[in-house]
Amino acid sequence: MRVFTASLAEMWFSARRRTRLSPDEATAEFMLAGRRLGQQAPASQRTLELVLAAAAGPATERELAGETAAVAAFVAALPEPEPARRRGPRRIPVLAVAFMFVALVALCGTAEAGALPAPLQQLAHQAINAPAPPPAMRVPRPSADVTPGPGATGSHSASAGSGPSQEPRTGKPGASPNPTHTSASQGNGNGQPTATASTQPTTSTTDNGKGNGGTPGQGGSNGNGNGHGNG
Amino acid sequence: MLDGDFPDVLRLAACGDAAAFARLWRDTHPPLLRYLWVSVGDAAEDVAADVWLDVARRIGSFHGGELEFRGWLFTMARRKMIDRHRYEARRPVSPTANGELFERQAPDDTVAAALEYISTETALALIATLPRDQAEIVVLRVVAGLDASAVAQIVGKSHGAVRVAAHRGLRTLRERVADAAVTSPGRGGVTL
Q1: CA distance linking residue B118 with residue A3, whole number of Å
Q2: Is the domain defined by B108-187 classed in CATH 1.10.10.10?
């Protein structure tokens, strides 16, 4: 009993130290937490303790009388499992198929419009006969279709040719054409074609045909389209 | 309190196990009913049934420990209690429509009965004589077994306000009982 009383006193003092409560407040917290004060507590506090203990007493038969009804209501309120199972597996494939269909239609439409990136457009061109990517968007093939000529680097970079490379749309004869439009028919400025792979005309639609066709080197291999079609 | 069994009981109840739900109900319904009885009087059973119906519908989405579950339960109960008060305020024929349920004075025989034999109902009747907020907080702390922080969340007050209200409630309760102090021979000489 002494040990019990001592531990209670210790708990009381520790609680008081922690929260800096007045003695009444510490006692109140003690009772609110459901702890017993012991026989040495004042009578009024022990009376209050009895009242609180009775309020928190064990359940009475009257309070538990509604258990059957409560459980029945619980069972009735449960969601029916069968429709939930039926709904689960069906919804996912329908949604997935619908999403894939929409994505496929959008991809085909973009491919038909020629708005895909060059590699994808090329793939779509081969697969569903979509328009081929414009030459400027094609993936370069440096080793297969380039024949280095004299004075030419043989590359498809912007510095090919000896003419001024920073005048892309001048259309002047003899000037180096726009490197972005001449990846397949790059001249070297001396009239010698260096690239022979492409058979399509260049796409410098804003340039006049005079400029493109007048370049001696471009007419030799595949510059016919430029000279006549665009002009 | 279910203590260590609570997670399994909750999981089974959430899966629709009626026995687990019954165990949960047996453990939690008495304090819930007492809280509601202090708050709404005779309508406590109806409000408690509504609360348990909500629990049955939403228990699958609850996550937390036993104290959190009690906090969740009593929060729902408090909302329904407020709804009940509003409903009764629109229908003044109800005996609790004037909102004086929590302010009512303890009848003399209540204190006398408490001194003879303190039953749960008598103790709750004494607590119900306190001002409304104090009675609610005392019941949540003592009967529901919630700490001050949990009670503060339920009633929407600060931790300090809850503590002060609880202390005032206990002081008032002690004074009311001590005013009619008598000696109860059946309780080992405890002065009542």
Answers
A1: 29
A2: yes
